Amino acid sequence: MPVPVSATKSVDGFELPAQFAEASKLVFTVNNTRFQLSPAKGDDLDLTLLEFIRSKGFTGTKLGCGEGGCGACTVVVGKYDSAHASGASSSSSSASKAPYRYKSVNACLLPLVAVHGCHVLTVEGIGSSSNPHPIQERIGKLFGSQCGFCTPGIVMSLYATVRNGYGHLTEADIEHSLDGCLCRCTGYRPILDAAKSFATVKSDKNGASASNDTSDESDEAEPSTPPEADLITRTPCAKGADCCMVNGSKKGCAPSTSPSPGISTTAQAIQKVLDPNQFKPYDAAAELIFPPYLAKDAFDAQDLVFVEQLPESDELDGEPQQTKADSSARQVWLRPGSLKSLVECMKLYGLDAGGKIRSGNTETGIEVKFKHLKYSVSIFVSDHIKELAFYRSEERGITVGANLSLTDLVNNLRAERPAGAYAKQVKRAILDNLAYFASNQIRNVATLAGNIATASPISDLNPVWVATGAELSYIDAAAGEVDEKSVNMRDFFLGYRKTALPAGAVITKLFVPWSAEAGSVVQAFKQSKRKDDDIAIVNACLRLSVRDDKILDATLAFGGMGPTTMQSVEAQAFLVGQQFSAPETLSQALQILAKDDFPLSYGVPGGMPVFRKTLALGFLTRLWGLAAPRLGLPKLAAAIEALPDLEELATSTVDRPVTKGLQDLENVAIKQPVGDSIPHLSAMKQVTGEAVYIDDMPPVANELHAGFVLSQRAHAKLLKVDAAEALRMPGVVDFITYKDIPAGGSNIWNPPSMDETFFAEDTVYTVGQIIGLVVADTKRHAQAAAHKVHIEYEDLPHILTIDEAIEAQSFFKPRPVIHRGDKSDEGWSQYDHVLEGETRMGGQEHFYLETNACLVIPGKEDSEIEVISSTQNPSETQVFCASILGIPNNRVVTRVKRLGGGFGGKESRTIAFAAPLTLAAKKLGRPVRVMLDRDEDMLTTGQRHPFMCKWKLAFSKDGTLERLHARVYNNGGWSQDLSQAVLERAMFHIDNCYRIPHLHVEGYICKTNTMSNTAFRGFGGPQGMFFTEDFVHKAAAVLGVRPEAIREKNMYQEDDETHFGQKLVDWNVPTLWQQLKGSADYDARLKAVEKFNAEHRYRKRGLAMIPTKFGISFTAIFLNQAYGVVHVYHHDGSVLFSHGGTEMGQGLHTKMAQVVATELGIPVSMVHLSETNTAQASNTSATAASASSDLNGMALKNACDQINASLAKFRAEVAAKGLSGVEAWKDVVHMAYFNRVQLSAIGHYRTPGIGYNWSDGTGTPFYYFTQGAAVSEVELDTITGDHRIVRADVHMDIGRSINPSIDVGQIEGAFTQGFGLFTLEETLFMNNGQLATRGPGNYKIPAFLDTPSDMRISFLKVQDPGNPAAAKHNKHLGTIQSSKGIGEPPLFLGASVFFALKHAIADARRQYVGDEAEGFHLVAPATPERIRVAIGDPLVRLAQESTPRREGEKSFFVAIS
């Protein structure tokens, strides 16, 4: 396709093709608001879409990560496309053929110039809390929103799916459409329930559907019901899941009058409060219309240029003039509307001239934001250039336009029906690797050319193009050529990020051949840390051509095995001419692959050398097993003796079906409204984007922004800190350090040890330590200037790991000890068995979706300061914001409206940012705001403590646990923070639920040079219990029995005493255990697992059941108190209350509203809480320790009791009038006011009967224990380490639930966070102390489809009419409404997934190591890498043998446990 060249002209000093408009305007609409932007009017267009829409007040769209990995920023972009209406569009999955298309995108990455001619929809635009969209209504009312920060992104992602495909959608379609969104609170099940209610087409038993199936027979799904009848609004059917309409019949049968709602959840609580008929039906006609003025193709063809207009100098005449920025410093965006214009732009501004093509911006956007790269000229391309956005199919193969989006490529391929066998395989290979390529949002904007040109060594698609011999066409614009050239993809990659493309080249198309002679086989593979939205660890596309059992040709292309997509040259050369079916052919090829083609060193960049090599070997082995039946050859003999039946090996992958859940909730008659499953009081505000978080607050007059200057060394002296260059940058106002702290102020903080400084002074002790902060007029200016502060260091030795700390004896004091019975080192020989070992588990990033945020507003008089912070600890924030200034606490007010998640991470570490901001605000007399970027937050705020335990266990031959000595180490980081309390709780919980007569445990806090590790949900308890379950599991292996047998045998009984001397009352674990064993059908499922494993060699299942007890109370006794304030307003009887707890999604404010309403005898609708405020509730304890409902609920009850006592006589008088309900209440309050009776009260509560003396080991540290048990079943692919949770049953004793459905959400969320901790989430450091895992790109939390395929939650009933004996449960419980704390206790039960995996691994190992199968060590988290290597089969051993560790060689990454 030759392209003519035209003349040029100058626009604002820049040479451009003549056709570019000099006064370009960017035209688009957000919801109903029209925008027309131009630099000439002072508009800044060098923005992301997220930055722009938030600046215009559309703050429902959130910044969660800035790299397109969490989905919080998701919006929907609509675009006119006349070809779509005619049927020529590639997006054939849309429900209608309207001439426009809507797609979900990551606004944090999308350049603003991308939305020219588009209709942008945000969460505010589709509904409001008073008139919500059906999607918003269902997610809100079905408990799908907790903290709410992620919710708008989830709503909009689902909105795009429903708007485009309603009437065609299966449950599987909907589940997969959410692959680009993360939630840290809910555990996903309620969101999935609400989302799947929009399905109208039944998925098959494996969860496949027309739109995600890659088979050649798949056709687009047809609606099985009218659009107005989805799974929630249709009349319920008595047949349930077997309904003929759900299964495809269009006529259906007579509807049932059953009251059961047609949604997948079975929670009776929802039925109590929600009538399914009240849900809005989805109506496509009610959607916001596409703006008519945008309905034309002309926008795409326009050539636009946007040149940054530099501000005029503020300097006065006669003052020294700073050097004026030259034109090259200005940011220029070009948006060519045709291939011709694009080629001309690249000729003028190719790579050598500072230009950069940016399309989906999914890679370059991250480079700009996190690597601080600058492109002077950005050339935006996308599918708006029609000559580059096409798809053609012919018998020889397919031709794909360079700018076709990956979503459109998928849609076109799904519609293909190739005739040839090889063509079908090529189609499947492309679709297989696109199925888990990034996320929906990324695939919607990412282009084919962008993915190829990026030349990522782990690209999912490039191995396919190499293996198939695809031909890439391009125009060498920089050389002035107009004709296309081509290069075969096998010759394209030259090195790390280096390709055969000349600088300034424009990729035009890719031709993928799929016409091959009979005997060609091709297959794609990928393995990553997480299935959805994750980059590959290793991927591959492997191709063989075989005729008459002789290999004619081979192309084995791998990603993740070197600096670029690589071919296994030596193995390929060997294979040509070999007999395919000869066992030695594959065996020798594996040897060559491991030793010659990919000789990865122990310290290879990216780490995991053995695992990566094992995956490559496994992929090649799988190809052999898949190829034989495709080639019509007989079943192959084993290539390696211990790996028989290659066909089974090849097909033993793990498939994930559609998820489902069941909740068996408490059903007891208790005082209302406590006990009702009312939705979170902020839910409808959260789903509509109306809920206000700190960064959503409108700018305050004269507001400034802060950018923190952070240490880049793990341990070093500060030789020089020079901010001169930073202070000269645009918008910068000041640079703040410890030197700015006024007389009387203090740089010291962090109780109880007070060993930390707000600002580093002469030494830094960790990467990420705060050195200072730049204050500027915008966040961008502040962050840019912070990177310009010049710092000189003198490096000092640093310590990262627990082992290094032990070797250096680097510990904090104190070193606590607990013992019972014999604590000597003698007498071990008397026991039947003595086992010694060590157990390790890594840390965990909180990954709350809202990063740390703070706004400080200085007062005009009396040194008053208002601190608005996303903190769990308002009072401690107040204390240290006053301390840094040296002013009384009564001059500082801390306010907290809501947090976008906390999990303990905002208990203490928020103060490290709030106090320096307070200093800056006070010094400058102006408000200062900050919201950390995700990488800053992860680098600076601390994580769950990594732990290691060295233990010695004695037990009898019948499995009785008799003696334990343990030394427990946690990695505290550079300061102590809360490490002592975390360590002590781990020691308190090291018994879990088992009586060990002789127990001695010592604790050590390791002082290292990592960030200061801190509180995290569970607070040491999960680590202590994990040690217990690990040595129980290993003791069971010695005895040859199931671990559950040892657990049952040693379980505490009522009135037993723990190793720290606390008597167990209301001990319900044995009851929970037996109930769960029955309801989870444990015995039958164990037999089924054993049968499955006997029948499957390469796919294994595992089952594990564990209990938990979690002590409820702060171990620092003074924190076990709370204040509650209640005001009753006489005019209308409404009630305003406040307490010291903060709302972070756990539903605390909702529960407290229920408590106040119940105690006063009024509806919840009459009760309101505005915020947590230290001026209203003083001396508050942190919202932590799962004690907030207990403490604040009792304090509010105390306040209500005072008011009720004041109102008692008036109630009697009103009752005598015959009034009742709300009218009676209003009359009572009115009478009380006019009789001058107090209508406000301050309540106080202190937890009775607790306290522990560490010096003599006496006392009662916990008020009670929340107890539970869980059974988890997993399925494991032993060739890759990939696995899924088949089913999880969690059974909890939570007393009388104040709000059962909110408590279910806490259980599901904690369990999900728990299995993330134990199986998925891995924090890694570099050897120099830099944190390697700084965002969702490389730190993986559970995603939607990691949730158990079947998740069942149930409660121990407080009362059971059918079982009078059940009344004994919790008879000693003295908490608010007899409820129990639930936030933290279920988290440890996620470890049941870890131990189920150990069961599966042991069964796999038995085939290779025999009697040693059970005796293996597995470090948590059990990542695919650790699982795969633990199996120890011949492929692993070959990888290990060919990866020797040279003397002094270090691994690329460091795990600090």
From TrEMBL:
**Positions of substrate binding:** 907, 985, 1019, 1115
Q: Is ATP-binding one of the keywords UniProt gives this record?
A: no
Recorded GO terms, molecular function? 2 iron, 2 sulfur cluster binding; FAD binding; iron ion binding; oxidoreductase activity
- The UniProt annotation places [2Fe-2S] cluster 2 binding at 147, 150, 183, 185
Tell me which residues bind Mo-molybdopterin: 872, 903, 1017, 1185
Give UniProt keywords alphabetically: 2Fe-2S, FAD, Flavoprotein, Iron, Iron-sulfur, Metal-binding, Molybdenum, Oxidoreductase
Active-site residue numbers: 1384 (proton acceptor)
What InterPro entries does its record include?
A: 2Fe-2S-bd (IPR002888), 2Fe-2S-bd_dom_sf (IPR036884), 2Fe-2S_ferredoxin-like_sf (IPR036010), 2Fe-2S_ferredoxin-type (IPR001041), 2Fe2S_fd_BS (IPR006058), Ald_Oxase/Xan_DH_a/b (IPR000674), Ald_Oxase/Xan_DH_a/b_sf (IPR036856), Ald_Oxase/xanthine_DH-like (IPR016208)
User: Binding positions for [2Fe-2S] cluster 1?
Assistant: 65, 70, 73, 108
Which residue positions does the secretion signal occupy? none
Q: How is the cofactor bound?
A: Binds 1 Mo-molybdopterin (Mo-MPT) cofactor per subunit. Binds 2 [2Fe-2S] clusters.
Q: Give the UniProt family note.
A: Belongs to the xanthine dehydrogenase family.
Record protein name field: Xanthine dehydrogenase/oxidase
- Annotated organism of origin: Pseudozyma antarctica
